[in-house]
Amino acid sequence: MKYFRLKRSSNDAQIGTFPQVSEGVFFTTINDPAFLENIDLFKEIQGNVSVPAAKLAKKAKKTDLVSVSSMGFSGRLFVSNKLKNILGKYAADKVQFLESYLLDKTGEKETYWIVQPLTSDQSYLDFENSDIWLKSIREGKISKVPLTSLEDFNIQSQKIDLPKHLQIEKPAIREEILDDFFILQKVSAGTGYYVSEKLKSEIENQNCTGIDFELLHS
User: Fold this and answer.
1) Does 87 reside within a domain?
2) Residue 13: in which H helix or E strand, if any?
3) Looking at the structure, do residues 108 and 163 belong to the same domain, yes or no?
4) Where are the alpha helices (DSSP H) in 44-196?
5) Domain that holds residue 81
6) Predicted confidence band at 181 (pLDDT cuts at 50, 70, 90)?
7) Which tens digits make up the pLDDT trace of 89-123?
8) 28 and 75: one domain?
9) Residue 207: left if φ>0, alpha if ψ -120 to 50, beta else—which one?
10) What is the mean pLDDT of residues 128-145?
């Protein structure tokens, strides 16, 4: 199957400016343990959580997938009702939708949703055909690392001390995988959301905006 990474568009003609959100709207201090930024990814959120909202930048356009760099949104998607409903049909057991809102330039609030990832599907990776690199924040790419399995990846990761780390630059997916939606960790930008050609077509047919689809190499 063909798979595509669901990415926030950086095309100013489509989104106005990048990122589209000028600032987060917080309802608690950033040090509050209940603040969403302080809650781990890949964990179901139960009980009290302080979910941030977002303020649209003056030059930005409102889209179905909105680019945000504010605290509370790290590793998460910020989506409209329309995109939420589409993803919910395919990803209901893999994500949790947290209600928020987008404040536009007129001061009007529109319901938006922060996507909290619940499952990491690293076992979907074909490690032998994926490009995996040893990287450093200071040095960038250091060397390519040949690995054959998830177990091998985890063992090698444990041997590496920060600021160095392993990153999956070009993930390849095993041929037998048939899911229409899945999530990967340790890819570029940390967390990646991936869709099948079927789900990509549905998103496009519903005219969802603010999205780039990056084809995975096979």
Assistant:
1) yes
2) helix 12-15
3) no
4) 81-91, 150-158
5) 9-119
6) very high
7) 999 899 999 999 999 988 899 999 999 999 999 99
8) yes
9) left
10) 90
Task: Quickly tell me which residue has 């600032």 as its tokens.
Answer: 23
Residue 217 lies in a domain: no
- Using a 10 angstrom Cβ sphere, with 0-12 exposed, 13-18 middle and 19 or more buried, the burial of residue 31 is exposed
How many folded domains does the chain comprise?
A: 2
Contact predicate 57/22, CB 8 Å: yes
Residue 177 in domain: no
Q: The whole model's pTM is what?
A: 0.94
The answer on 83 and 17 residing in a single domain is yes
User: Residues 87, 77, 170, 186: is their CA dihedral positive or negative?
Assistant: negative
**Calpha distance 76→96 (Å, rounded):** 10
Establish how many alpha carbons lie within 13 A of residue 43's alpha carbon, considering only the half-sphere containing its beta carbon: 10
Number of Cβ within a 10 Å radius of residue 44: 8
What is the DSSP track for 183-210?
A: EEEEETTEEEEEEEHHHHHHHHHTT--S
CA 158 to chain centroid: 24
179 within some domain: no
In tens, the pLDDT along 182-203 reads 999 999 888 999 999 999 999 9
Could you give phi then psi for residue 168, rounded to 5 degrees? -90, 100
